[in-house]
Design goal:
Blueprint (H helix, E strand, L loop, with lengths): L10 E4 L6 E4 L35 E4 L11 E4 L5 E4 L12 E5 L4 E4 L11 E4 L5 E4 L12 E5 L4 E4 L11 E4 L5 E4 L12 E5 L4 E5 L10 E4 L5 E4 L10 E6 L4 E7 L8 E4 L5 E4 L12 E5 L4 E4 L11 E4 L5 E4 L12 E5 L4 E4 L11 E4 L5 E4 L2 E2 L2 E2 L3 E5 L1
Antiparallel strand pairs: 1-2, 3-32, 4-5, 5-6, 6-7, 8-9, 9-10, 10-11, 12-13, 13-14, 14-15, 16-17, 17-18, 18-19, 20-21, 21-22, 22-23, 24-25, 25-26, 26-27, 28-29, 29-32, 30-31
């Protein structure tokens, strides 16, 4: 029987100097959420009421438009025209959503768009080089992990079925490679064990093909595109261990190679590529199920992890985005009781330190976080204990 799995968040960041949008997936829901603390939008309305696009003061969060539906464990993808596509997830009743919506930062408003063919949560979403969006895998109520995929066209606002993966996956990762293909790794099987297989999606043919397998089965891991085009895979859960291992995928060879271990095994962490080429790994849960405060840096040249400063608090299900300045914004997450956090902080790579910044307008974890054109950051949805949120907010660095 398929297991619901606890969750971290989608991280979508455009890293200065990298030029590639990299999406790491949110992970699934630990429990069926109870009704939302916010008022859902009228189902007959095409859009939410317009909100002021006025920016917050520097280092502050301010509320923006409300989503058309409360959702968590969804994905957020920055489109080529600057809008943000929000897809799927779960609603306050725990039902899986097929609906999608688009945020327009020019007016600070969310609008409904076409719905997916299959409802899903714990899926992945990747912007392709032709500006379409690949949606793959995920979970659905009472079913095994999904092997299906869909393509969203911003031009038509519609989803269309695409190729099938070799196996069903939920809580996996999907990463856009330099050649335009998409690498899909790991995920949870029907039994909840991590799978080691990986595959490549070719947008030209709309098909998935199997590539080399990872050195360990894992889900709830992170995948980060490195500057040299390789992909770093870190942590996650195996069967049933929490992993400290890491590996690198080489697209030229189609193989994974073990590459160092973290100082602390963790899953549900957030990872962000720094402008230096190092990778920052923060928080997550340890082998005892306790949220972590520690952070580590991976050096691709040395193939090693080293500890860096600790965050101001423990976080699991948080989000991390590298800003244009090179500083990393860490926001929200949940504590050991699954209550949402309103705190946020900044990591300064020059000193290896974390410092508090403005607080979120709404405490939340398992949210999406998207770097917009102009350098501001959109945070939307997520959970706070049993609540599922429809509120969104903007952070001004």
């Amino acid at each position: 029987m398929f297991m619901r799995l606890a969750s971290a968040t989608v991280v979508l960041a455009i890293v200065a100097g990298c030029g590639t949008a990299v999406a790491t997936p949110n992970l699934g829901a630990p429990t069926t959420p109870s009704p939302s603390g916010s008022t859902p939008a009228d189902s007959a309305a095409a859009t939410t009421p317009a909100a002021s696009p006025i920016l917050p003061a520097i280092g502050k969060f301010v509320a923006t438009g409300t989503m058309t539906a409360p959702r968590a464990y969804d994905t957020a993808t920055l489109l080529a025209d600057g809008r943000v596509l929000i897809v799927g997830g779960q609603d306050p009743s725990g039902a899986t959503l097929a609906t999608a919506e688009v945020f327009d930062p020019k007016v600070g408003r969310f609008s409904k768009t076409g719905s997916m063919k299959i409802a899903r949560w714990g899926h992945t979403a990747v912007l392709l080089k032709d500006d379409r969006v690949l949606i793959a895998g995920g979970g659905n109520e009472g079913t095994a992990p999904l092997d299906s995929s869909e393509i969203y066209s911003p031009a038509t606002g519609a989803f269309a079925p695409s190729g099938k993966m070799s196996i069903g996956r939920v809580n996996h990762t999907a990463t856009l490679l330099g050649d335009g293909r998409v690498l899909v790794t790991g995920g949870a099987s029907d039994s909840g064990d991590g799978v080691s297989s990986a595959e490549l999606f070719d947008p030209a043919g709309g098909k998935f093909t199997v590539t080399g397998s990872m050195t360990a089965g894992r889900w709830g891991h992170t995948a980060t595109l490195l500057r040299d085009g390789r992909v770093l895979i870190v942590g996650g859960k195996g069967a049933p261990d929490v992993l400290g291992s890491a590996e690198i995928y080489d697209p030229a060879a189609g193989t994974f190679t073990a590459k160092g271990s973290m100082e602390t095994p963790r899953w549900g962490q957030a990872a962000a590529l720094l402008t230096s080429g190092l990778v920052l790994v923060t928080g997550g849960e340890d082998v005892n199920g306790a949220p972590l405060q520690t952070a580590e840096l991976f050096d691709p040249k040395a193939g090693t992890f080293t500890g860096t400063g600790s965050m101001t608090t423990t976080r699991f299900g948080h989000s991390a985005t590298t800003l244009a300045s090179g500083v990393v914004l860490i926001a929200g997450g949940v504590d050991s009781s699954d209550a949402g956090l309103a705190t946020a902080e900044l990591f300064d790579p020059t000193g290896g330190t974390f410092t508090a910044t403005g607080s979120l307008a709404n405490a939340r974890g398992h949210q999406t976080q998207t770097l917009l054109a102009g350098g501001v950051v959109l945070i939307a949805g997520g959970t706070d204990g049993d609540l599922v949120l429809d509120q969104a907010e903007i952070y001004q660095p």
